[in-house]
């Protein structure tokens, strides 16, 4: 067997269908590009049509298969509509990546019920509902990969963690609950844990060069994360090679969490 064939057997996503929420920006865009280039057909879910269209256009030009689903994951009806429209694009997914997320950062004492509800809806309830929609069918088919994107704040308080950290802690527990339920049926459920990555999500923090440099210094690698740092880990978790990895939190953070 050639090296190419061996690697393809382990990691190729040819013929698989993926749904990536938040796949039009930042870390999700990096993951969308990686899954699509590894062979998956990717339905990308987010609100902003222009960013979705640009993502699909660029991937199609690169010879990949991608489709745009503009939907708001902050409401349960929005999540349900997104799921059905994603299925309409390429069929039932083999891979679900929950990357859409928001981080509202009011100081804890000023956090409103609306901040709490919106954060939980997008960061935790949407991944739960999408898991309920797709997970049991993956289990019936005997193969599935669910990947959630969490945060350092699932593990420690950090820069006004507020409701965000709570939602990400819940998401890590959701991965374990899903792993417990479906791993026997070939469906693995894991989380990727970023460190600090310069994306629109943390535009305010990114505008402060001293803070950005201090955060880079806290890593072991010596720099902050980039969207393409998640490519290898995402393809691995989505691939057949990761069939015995489940219920895990995999830190892709340049050593930030252990420094
Ligand atoms: N950047 C970091 O340092 C960092 C660190 C730890 C964890 N994370 C996590 O990584 C994930 C991606 O973050 P990022 O930094 O890449 O952020 P980003 O560039 O702001 O991307 C967020 C994505 O989620 C989508 N989204 C947000 N609200 C949505 C909604 N209500 N309905 C549908 N889609 C929605 C956005 O598209 P629209 O706005 O068009 O809807 C966008 O595609 C998040 O879960 C975040 O918590 C990021």
From TrEMBL:
The keyword DNA damage does not apply. The keyword Disulfide bond does not apply. GO terms for molecular function: oxidoreductase activity, acting on the CH-OH group of donors, NAD or NADP as acceptor. Keywords: Oxidoreductase. InterPro entries: NAD(P)-bd_dom_sf (IPR036291), Sc_DH/Rdtase_CS (IPR020904), SDR_fam (IPR002347). It holds the Pfam family adh_short_C2. Belongs to the short-chain dehydrogenases/reductases (SDR) family. PANTHER family: 3-OXOACYL-[ACYL-CARRIER-PROTEIN] REDUCTASE FABG, SHORT-CHAIN DEHYDROGENASES/REDUCTASES FAMILY MEMBER. This is 2-deoxy-D-gluconate 3-dehydrogenase. The gene is kduD.
């Amino acid at each position: 067997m050639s090296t190419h064939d061996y690697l393809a057997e382990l990691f190729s996503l040819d013929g698989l269908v993926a749904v990536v929420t938040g796949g039009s920006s930042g870390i999700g865009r990096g993951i969308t590009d990686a899954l699509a280039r590894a062979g998956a057909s990717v339905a990308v879910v987010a609100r902003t049509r222009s960013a979705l269209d640009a993502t699909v256009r660029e991937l199609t030009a690169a010879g990949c298969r991608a489709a745009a689903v503009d939907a708001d994951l902050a409401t349960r009806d929005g999540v349900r509509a997104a799921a059905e429209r994603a299925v309409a694009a390429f069929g039932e997914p083999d891979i679900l990546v929950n990357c859409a997320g928001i981080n509202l950062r009011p100081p804890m004492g000023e956090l409103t019920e609306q901040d709490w509800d919106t954060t939980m809806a997008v960061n935790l309830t949407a991944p739960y509902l999408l898991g309920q929609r797709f997970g049991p069918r993956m289990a019936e088919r005997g193969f599935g990969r669910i990947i959630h994107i969490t945060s350092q704040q699932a593990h420690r308080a950090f820069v006004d963690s507020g409701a965000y950290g709570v939602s990400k802690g819940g998401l890590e527990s959701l991965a374990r609950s899903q792993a417990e339920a479906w791993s026997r049926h070939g469906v693995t459920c894991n989380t990727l844990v970023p460190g600090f990555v310069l994306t629109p999500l943390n535009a305010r923090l990114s505008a402060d060069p001293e803070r950005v440099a201090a955060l880079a210094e806290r890593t072991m690698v010596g720099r902050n994360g980039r969207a393409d740092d998640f490519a290898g880990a995402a393809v691995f978790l989505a691939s057949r090679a990761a069939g015995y990895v489940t219920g895990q939190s995999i830190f892709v953070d340049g050593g930030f969490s252990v420094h």
